[in-house]
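User: Teach me something about this protein's shape.
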Amino acid sequence: MTTGSTEFIDVTTADYYLEEKWSQQVTMERKKNLVFAENVDRSFEGELKRGQKIWIGNITHPTARAKSANSAITFETVTETGTSITISTYYYTALALEDVIKPMVAINLLDKYVPGLSYGVHLQEDSDLAAIIDDGTITQSVGTLAVDLTYDNLIRADQYLNDANVPADQRMIIASPACKAGWLKLDHFINKDYGDLTKGLLGSWLGQYPIYITTNTDGSNAAGHDSVMMHKQAIAHITQIKPAVRTWWDGDYQCVKMSCLTTYGSTVRRADHAVWLKGP
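Assistant: First, the predicted structure itself:
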């Protein structure tokens, strides 16, 4: 023991007894805004609760012909095609926590990880849908990757959909934050003189295109992103096993295990109902 007029028990000498605490609050990783899976055609899910594949047939309209007097009419022979959705994608997340850990940690780790288990498979599903935009199935496109989209690009994309007789309802734009930054430089989106074209700050365009901004578009700020203008029926999607976190105790390993599984399939149902917006 050391003595003296300036010798105190301070944070250095009492270091062995200094108490440390772990907050019950944690800094959770931010989640991406997952909008692709919510804005595609999921109307076939009820028909494929069992089975692996569903066929969706096409029906074309007959052609009108001029009728001549005193002549027999002719008939059309129609050979139709279609598309299909196959449940061929399976993803899961899983974690396990040994029993010996529980009394040694200050927070309930299982509770903290449960939301992420579900989010992990939802993110993968949304990412797979986002990847369809530039996989070659959607052939209509405007703009240049890594270059701001112009207002003319949007007008041309809208024309693509109008030329394909796409219904006015259930159209949308899904875009990257970098794409939004470019649009904020356009008077059409920020000047009150164009108030009839937009609601709020990039809320919608032309009154029929809600705009969703997400970091889950394919690409990067350096290479550009794959944004899209589309109708809901452009892409059909089926989630057969909905994500649900399951928990069980493993006696052999003396631990609690958790997992979340999903299975799904997608197809481009109407390629002319979507336009790839190549941009920043």
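Now, about its shape. The mean pLDDT is 93. The helical segments are 109-131, 151-163, 177-183, 187-190. If you'd like, I can walk through any region in more detail.
User: That's plenty for now, thanks!
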